[in-house]
Amino acid sequence: KLIRGEELREEFGIRDSEFGIIEDLPTYNIQYDWTNRYCTEFILEGDGLSQAKMKENLASFGDSLIVVGDDNLLRIHIHTSNSRQLLHYVSSFGEISQIKIDDMKEEHETLFTSQSQSISILPVALGDGLREIFISMGADGVIEGGQSMNPSMGEILQAIERVPSSSVILLPNNGNVIPAANQAAKMSQKEVAVIPSKSVPEGLSALVAFREDVSFWENVKCMEDALHQTKTGEVTRASRDAEYKDIQIKKGDILGIFDGKIQFAEKSLKDTTIALLQKMVEIEYEIITIFYGKEISEDEAEDLAELVSQKFPDKEIEIHYGGQPHYFYIISVE
Q1: Is 272 exposed, middle or buried (0-12, 13-18, 19+ CB in 10 A)?
Q2: Is the model's pTM score more than 0.70?
Q3: What are the chain's domains?
């Protein structure tokens, strides 16, 4: 409610003034651009390799670029239009191995032309980057919606009916969307299950748990179990003065939210993000994934990733463009 600009009720410990109302979100009608249709992954081994330099060198070859590793070994993921040309170029830096190339357009079309007894997965998300991520991971479409722009029951039902499968799994990815998703599931003549994901990281964790070789309800159970394997953090900006529990919040403060609760209200975006991560990360967790929003530049995101790497040297750091409005960063720890 704080982020939506709604009044926070007394039982939540809010006193004094309310937060401001966030402006209405634009409605997106985004079609996935299949120009860079080849999902290409490989390992590069060599001497004196540099993550930053390699990212710079490969940026023009495509999108969704991820480079992790050290001076002697880099793991590279990229969506490109010409895998052969890319690999030929990269081979000049060292030895390439474990090459994996997938035609995402072909895979996606196969899903949509598959037999009616197959399972379709429909997540709810807002942001062109998040949409591309869900599609590339096997979702059959993305229902547009997010903070302060919840899809209606009718819109969710229409999305269910549009996919060719007779069985559909919904990922609401927001607690406020779950009731409408449940209602749409009851209204549909198809077999529909709602995985109660309350955030994008939870939705992605559930999607990773999906298996083609098990039944519909086995998948539902596996995906529900996966919700508990990830933690979600969010970094946004307050629009009015307020007091939340023991935290004094001023208009314009950067808010760090974990487990649906405000943990920090600071002036610095970086300080808030690092403080939030320090609260979220525990020894047993291995991967920190950061999705940066439309207000954050790629350079800013990479600077943050470098800082996070220094603060958490034993964790694997991934950073992706999410394009989400209102949230500077959505963070997953798993």
Answers
A1: buried
A2: no
A3: 10-23+230-333 (3.30.1180), 35-103 (3.30.70), 114-228 (3.40.50.510)
